[in-house]
Write a structure and sequence with these properties.
This protein has about 140 residues and is mainly α. The protein has seven helices and no strands. It has a single domain (about 5-130), classed as DNAb Helicase, Chain A, CATH 1.10.860.
Length: about 140
């Protein structure tokens, strides 16, 4: 898996945690579009989350998505569950900081927790997307059409 694919998974996994108290889509809405995702399933999930937010629905967990879209998204359910469990920024940061705490406790030092934000992941994804887009040779898009 490339770093960009991992970032895609983290972004979608985190968006699947959005709720009334914390809507992570707010950090993506003005700069990320569904077509930026390399995987069709992640692209579809992002589009659904964007659509739900456009309609005022900020709870975009897998259950809320299935309630809103029904059978149309059942094929995405396993992917959504994998992403929210394995790639959510919240879970990854918590696990990382727990390892830091345990290690610090064992060796008797003061823990230095990760101080990163979801915004950093969004910005890194955008930079990688732009860098990747810039690597396409001039005229290649026209030649492919």
């Amino acid at each position: 898996m490339t770093q960009k694919e991992r970032l895609e998974k983290i972004i979608i996994g985190t968006l699947l945690e959005s709720n009334e108290s914390q809507n992570y889509f707010d950090e993506c809405r003005c700069c990320i579009t569904a077509d930026m995702f390399s995987d069709d399933r992640r692209r579809r999930i992002y589009g659904i989350i964007a659509d739900m937010n456009a309609n005022g629905k900020v709870e975009t967990d897998p259950n809320s998505i299935v309630e809103a879209y029904g059978e149309m998204v059942l094929d995405l359910l396993p992917t959504m569950l994998d992403l929210v469990v394995d790639y959510s920024f919240i879970h990854l940061k918590t696990e990382h900081n727990e390892r830091i705490f345990r290690t610090s406790f064992v060796i008797g030092t003061k823990p230095h927790y990760a101080d990163v934000s979801f915004t950093l992941y969004v910005n890194t994804f955008l930079k990688m997307y732009e860098d990747e887009k810039g690597k396409v040779p001039f005229g290649a898009n026209a030649a492919a059409a």
